[in-house]
Design a protein that fits this description.
179 residues, alpha+beta, 4-stranded antiparallel beta sheet, two-stranded antiparallel ribbon, 6 helices, 8 strands, 26% helix, elongated
Length: 179
Amino acid sequence: LMEVAHTQAPVPRAAPIVRASHLGVSFGAVQALVDVDLEVRPGEIVAITGEPGAGTSCLLRCLAGDVAPDVGEVRFRGRRLGQLPALGAHDVGVVWQDPELCLHLDVASNLLLGRETPRMMMFRSRFHTAAGEIPERLRIPIDDMTRSAWLLSDGEGRLLPLGRPVGAGPAARLLDAQT
């Protein structure tokens, strides 16, 4: 059983950022999602909870464009998700259940992974300064951007991936399970 909790939308009658309609996903004989409808409008915080196996991660993967539903559709800003590139390229930031750290890289490189610009890469100090703004904004207590990710505590390692989608400034942020 899955439950959905909405906050009051601060922008009345704004068009949904994300809309899922009649989603259904099966893995063989197992039905992970059956006729799921969901709308998320600007400024809303939506929590989807459920017991293990209830389909919450599967729903998140559909919303992120990582899993195509067997039935129904997901729309992002009115456009069907199938018409958009998958996962992150359509302005949705995702933090998965596992920390997904590149332990051989430093903190800055983990925060900006995949979003490095040539201008940033020309000057290491500019790169580390840009990365340092992210934990500061989120109040994540990591201040040394040159520190190797394998030296982070377990708690710091779980907090660091939260900064990735925030740093990109996506329109929607999806956090899986333990995040």
